[in-house]
Here is the input.
Amino acid sequence: MDHEPELTREVDLRFPVDLKATLRGVWRGTRDPSWRFRPDGIWRASRSPTGPATIRLVDRGRFVEVGAWGPGAQAALDGAANLVGANDDDHGFAPEHPIVARLWRDHRDVRMPRSSAVTESLLACVLEQRVTTFEARRSMSQMATRWGEPAPGPIDLTLPMDPEVLAGVPHYELHVLGIERKRADTMRRVAANARRLDALATLPVAEARLRLVEVPGIGEWTAAEVALVALGDADAVPIGDAHLPNDVTHVLSGRAVDDDDAMLEALEPFAGHRGRVIRLLAAAGLRAPRRAPRYAPRDISDQ
Here is the structure.
């Protein structure tokens, strides 16, 4: 099999980057058919205004080797530095909290990615509203099986669902995949406005987030999750998450408190990098003891 890419680029790194850990926020788990982690690199299929593409990311130490295939190959190369966190700005982040300082020392190579794929991130997050992670990712896999298209390039990947196709899918066809009417309507609404929503990646983060929550069905939790992944917002905090307040307060204060205000108070000393702290906690696997199944958040827009 010929793995020679159609286009290549080297992304220079000013600091070490753990590719897998950095991209974990963009990747939606093992059921995500648009990603593959292999010995020869990390593979991702995506869409852009210029067309679909597949990229392969290979860690070469001081740089990341990027190969791309498909009509959108050039756009994929142009976005690769942001995607792998090479342009992440940690200026002003000098944590004094002993646990966070240790995490920053040990996991400094976990950077903030910026995929610019607003619609793709929105659809994934809407799927995760009000259901378990397992249920959401099962629905994603079933959607890919039913309506997916093969990605360009030499390996078996499936492109994220074409928004134009999704916008025309009747809600009852999504219902049989476990997606109830409210989430189905929100997903189709996002898909119908994909071009406008993807353009938000060119705006300042604060303005983009204000535009996101204007979309019916998109609340603060979803907007923050999209900002963390698609917009590279190092300060985004998902409000309304089922477990995050417990996790953050447990680690930062020693007492788990299931309250968003308590979480925000604990994160206040890290203003400007609150999302970075959340990513560091996740990278280290630090969380409060679990007492219930992992249900996804009830977004503020559902209340």
Strands lie at 7-12, 35-38, 41-46, 53-59, 63-69. The first strand starts at residue 7 and ends at 12.
